[in-house]
Design a protein that fits this description.
With 160 residues, this protein is mainly alpha-helical. Helices cover 59% and strands 4% of the residues. α1 packs across α2 (24-39), α2 runs parallel beside α5 (100-118) and α6 (127-136) packs across α7. The termini are far apart.
Length: 160
């Protein structure tokens, strides 16, 4: 297990998420949770780009599958206190529902809105404009869902 995979495992543990990649929703949750962790300041060295379901990083998927295969151990390693503090902010964003489809949809919305705003793909922060951009990417989020996501991201200091 390389250092980035160890760090990925520690971040997932810090977020209270298991390494479960059995379904598409599991993989979507992994991608969006790690995207948000990095945006909170936990630098794992992953580069995200826009893909069909929002921010995506092939290396996160590869490292997730390596973790699932049990390549090496993460014992004896721990995150620094600053990273743990940043992960608490991310945890507050994670939907508490046990329904994976709902959890994945909410994380997709949060990560997608954040990505578009932070990367300057949208001029301003008008929910209607962001919603329009998301619909161009075939995302069926309502303007109200976008407004709620903006409020939540701002409340947890993901958008200043």
């Amino acid at each position: 297990m390389d250092r980035r995979q160890v760090a990925l495992k520690l971040v997932l543990d810090g977020l209270g998420l298991s390494v479960d990649l059995g379904s598409f929703d599991d993989r979507l949750i992994l991608q969006k949770a790690i995207y948000l962790a990095q945006e909170a300041g936990v630098d794992l060295g992953y580069y995200y780009r826009w893909y069909l379901r929002g921010p995506f990083c092939p290396a996160v998927a590869e490292d997730g599958f390596a973790l699932l295969a049990g390549v090496g151990e993460a014992t004896g390693w721990q995150l620094d206190s600053g990273s743990l503090k940043r992960l608490r902010r991310v945890r507050r964003l994670l939907p508490t529902t046990e329904n994976k489809a709902q959890r994945a949809k909410k994380l997709e919305l949060l990560a997608s809105v954040h990505f578009l705003v932070r990367r300057g793909e949208i001029a301003g922060r008008e929910p209607k404009e962001i919603g329009k951009a998301l619909r161009r990417f075939d995302k069926q989020f309502t303007d109200q869902e976008v407004a709620d996501a903006l409020r939540e991201l701002s409340a947890h200091e993901f958008l200043s």
